[in-house]
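Running log. JK asked me to keep both predictions on one page so they can be read side by side. First protein, sequence followed by its tokens:
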Amino acid sequence: MGLASVEEKDEASILEVLYYLSELAVKYAKEGLESDAKRLIERIKEIGIASALAGLELVVTNALLLYSPVAKEACKRGLENAVVSIALAIGEIGKAAGGQKMEVPAKIAASCLGEMSNTAAFTRTRKETIAVIFALGEIGKSVTNQSLGDAANRTVTLLGETGKIAANQNFEDAALNVELLLQEIGTEAIEKNLKETADSSVRLLGDIGRTADMQGLERVLLQAAYSLETIKFDAQDRYLVSASLIAEVALMDFEDSGLEKLEEKLNKNLRGKRKFPDIDL
């Protein structure tokens, strides 16, 4: 069911299809039929995105919420690839909703991913954590670009919390990518004058950096400092005093960690080199 099909049907008919697909996906997950479940996860995603582009906010919201029972069953059965597919699908629907300035569905998408990140943390699944981070980043960039402040704040908070979880689990690559996403979103928030989002991005970067320091994740600590410096200077240029001050305080906290010696030791500048690890689906 693509965009044309969605536009030809009423909301009730589309919702009926979504409920059927969700129930069938749960059934397949219970039976351990991962490839079949993934196929239906993809169909729900296609309907969700098409509905966002068609302006059907109620349908988009339901498409997102109907992933929850599928995700829970997939987690219970250890169907990791299905869980990853759900996370990425939610991210794409949330991104499309944000692009259409649908703030409520975008916030729901972020919240669904936040719930999934807690599950991923409990099972210590690196692949799921990376998928959630990527999806939250896509939503965060979308809603920030559209100046949807509440959705941006919610998404940034969940992204930062997932970054701290990743650092605590010693998922270095995942934590690094959270920092680079927070830097990107924080910089965009400054450009859009979303002060609360910018402040949250800086504060969470500091939190991740401190967690990394405790865990001995040197590259993550160094990236936190680089990202904070970048946002600090951008905030100063735009006269956003609070973000600049929060960044300055966090950087002062990091001084005792010997950042100069650390940078020399690592002999690698990580700025601007975001590359998500491949996620085999």
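And the second, directly underneath as requested:
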Amino acid sequence: MSVVIPARDDAVLLDRCLRALAQQTVAPAEVIVVDNASEDTTAAVAASHGARVLVEPTVGIWAAAATGYDAAEAPVIARLDADSLPRPDWVEQITEAMAQRPEAAAVTGWGRFVDLPRLIGIPAAAVYLGAYYVLGYAATARAPLWGSNMAIRRSVWREVRGRVHRTEREVHDDMDLALALGPHHIVATVPRIVVGVSARSLRGMAQLGRRFHRALRTLSLNWSRVPPWKRWALRFGWGVRHAPH
């Protein structure tokens, strides 16, 4: 398994993430950190942990993530964000899930907010991720992917990488990838694959507004190709003769 971590000016949290990866019950084949035009010590921190460091000068989460996916050498490509804090069995759980679900193109897991009090963080994560998965399922006609905790088979990535919007800065790369997979690829949601994450994405109206804008942009780009009703029709085998290539 290759682990890809896109990062930009996130040296402190990246250090925490890489320390957690070093304590895995099953070691990954490689860890790739994609330095996305950082102005801090992100690249140096990654190198100090023995990660393979790639530089992506085009600013954007999709550009950085795709660079890492393209370079990955293992049959399974797992993804974390710099603020992800994987449990010690994270690699092991993904490996088992992919082996147990050979029909699945990708797997995605669950999360918890590690920088909120436990009594707040647990229900906040349940509401946030629960809403994301329900709405994402409606949008994609399959389970969506969550970029802070997911894995995809390298063969599938190579099949769909020409359909993703890797040059777009204002899209959610995980949802864009899920939509590019289409309704015929299976995404397995495995709640036992858990990572801790920062709640920074929920702080401030500007941040929430930007996330909402990105969601609309992601959906509009993909629904212009295949609208949601056609995705659901294809999901249930209706109109298969007219399925898009």
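Observation for JK regarding the second prediction: Strands lie at 2-7, 30-35, 52-55, 76-79, 85-86, 104-113, 150-153, 186-197.
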